[in-house]
Amino acid sequence: MSTPITQAPFGTLPDGAQVSEFTLANSRGMVVKILDFGGIIREIQAPDRDGRFADVVLGFDTLEPYLRDSPYFGALIGRYGNRIAKGRFAIDGKAYQLTVNDGDNHLHGGAPGFDKVLWSAAIEGNALVLRYRSPDGEQGYPGKLDATVSYSLNDDNEILMRFHAVTDQPTPVNLTQHSYFNLRGAGQEEGDILQHEMRIDADRFVPIDAGSIPLGPLVPVTGTPFDFRQPRPIGERIGQPDKQLRHGSGYDHCWVLNAGGVEEGEGRRAVRVREPESGRVLELITQEPGVQFYSGNFLDGSLTGKGGRPYAFRSGFCIEPQHLPDSPNQPAYPDTILRPGEIYATESRFKFSVEKQER
C-alpha cells in the first residue's frame, strides 16, 4: 500500500505566501515529490533493472529558479496547453484576444499560466488534490474556471493524474502535465535522451508552420521521421532534412493517437519509452486524443538544475497528454470549448517499470 503523503516547506513567494512540497511514496520504494506551486512534479525516484533508484525528471533544488527560469519543468499547464494562433479565437461569434507570450502566439495559458500560480492543496486519502480558481478575464480567457488536479501513486509504480474543471462561461480548456524525463537519471552526467527508444501509437501527426502553429490537415506518419509505431531511438532520424523537423528544431509536435488500445477506465496506451542501459520503461496511458512529444530542443546548458548540473541540449523529453493545438481555430479538430453545466474530466498516468535484460 502507498504510505501517507507528507508535507514540508519548500520556500516563500515574493508576496509572502508559503510553498509546500508533498512527498508520495509506495511500498516498492518509488517516491514522487510535488509542489503546490504550479503543481510541479519536482522529483521522481524510479528503479532501474538492478533495483537502483534515480531521479528521472528535470527540475531545480530550490523554489527561485521555478519562478524565473523554468521552461515549464514538471508543471501543470492551463487553461490551454500548447499554442493558440495569435492568441485569437471566437466562441458563438464573439471574438477574444488572449495575451501572447510565444512570438505572436499564445502558449501554455499565457504568462503567468497555471504553472506559475499557487494551488490550494489538500491531502485526501492517498491523493494530493490541487485546486485553482482562474478568474474571468485571466490572460484574456472568458469566464471563471474552477480547476482541480489530483495526483496519486500506486503500488504498480503508476502516477495517476485526474483533471477536472467547470466554468460559468464558454471557454477553451486543455489541461496537461509538462514533466521532462531522462530515464538514465535526470540532472546526472548521463547525457542526452537520443538513445531512448520510443513508441507512439499514432498513425497521424499535426504538421506546423515556422511559428509552431498547426497547418490544419493531419498528416500520415508513414514514410516520415514521425513514424514511431515501432520502437525507434529518438535520435535515429531527428537530424534528417525534413521541413517539419526544421520547424520544431527537432520533435515538438502533437501526435493524434489511434482509437484502439483503450483499456476500460484507463485510456489509450499511447506512448512507451525504454532506456536501454538502465532498463527503465515509461508508459503514458491517457484518455486524451493527442500527445505532444518534445525532444528538449531548446535546452542549451544555460539552466543549472538539481545537483548543480547544467541541463544540456536534449537532456530531457516531454510527453504531454492533451487535445490538439490551436483547436479553437481548427473546426476539424476535437472540440475544446467547455460550457456552463458541462464537466471537463480526463485522466492520464505515467507508469514506470523495468526490462530485466536488454533485448
Q: In terms of per-residue confidence, which ranges show pLDDT below 50 for 5 or more consecutive residues?
A: none
Give the beta-strand count: 28
Largest sheet: 10 strands, antiparallel
Alpha-carbon distance between the termini?
A: 32 Å
Helix content: under 10%
Structural class, by secondary structure, is mainly beta
Report what the structure shows:
The model has no long low-confidence stretch (mean pLDDT 95). The protein has helices at 64-68, 243-248; strands spanning 3-12, 18-25, 31-35, 41-47, 53-55, 75-77, 83-84, 88-91, 94-97, 106-107, 120-124, 127-134, 145-153, 158-167, 171-172, 176-178, 197-200, 202-205, 219-220, 232-233, 252-257, 262-263, 267-274, 280-286, 290-294, 318-322, 337-338, 344-354. With 359 residues, it is mostly beta strands. Strand 22 and strand 23 (267-274) form a beta hairpin. The strands form seven sheets. Strands 11, 12, 13, 14, 17, 20, 22, 23, 24 and 28 form a ten-stranded antiparallel β-sheet that branches. Helices cover 3% and strands 40% of the residues. The protein has two helices and 28 strands. It is globular, with a radius of gyration of 19 Å.
